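Hey, sorry to bother you again with one of my protein questions. I've been staring at a protein lately and its backbone has me curious. I owe you a coffee for this, so here goes:
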Amino acid sequence: MKVTVYSRAEIEKVMADGNFPQNTAVISFYDPAIKRIDEGYTHVDYSDICDTVFYSELEDLNLEVLKRKGYTYDTYFPEADDMAAFIVRAYADGKNIICQCEYGQSRSAGCAAAIKEYFYKDGISMFADYNYYPNQVVFHKVYDACLCQ
């Protein structure tokens, strides 16, 4: 299974160019904070391109900010278990996975790191790549949820 990370702009260009990879599942993070600024903001629309998509409306928060925003570790990212089931199913179906978020650096990178760690013990490669700033809470929540599958 190939796991790749895209920003919104990158994946929209891939889609517009007609180069969306076959046999791929998508995990798409989108930001509720942007909706407060732009009423027309929504997730990337994969409906005409991919039928295996998991959407997650999730703020990009680190552990220190959770409490200030009204979350605990347990209440932040409640769909992690469902996402883990989606990931394990995609793997069993022989699909590659695209992880996508607004900038392609934090939530998607944290998710990709968790997938790579769970299946290949190579999640550190995402943390070592200076193009990414993996969200550690997303990483731990997805990885732990995969372990429970």
Summary: The first strand starts at residue 3 and ends at 7.
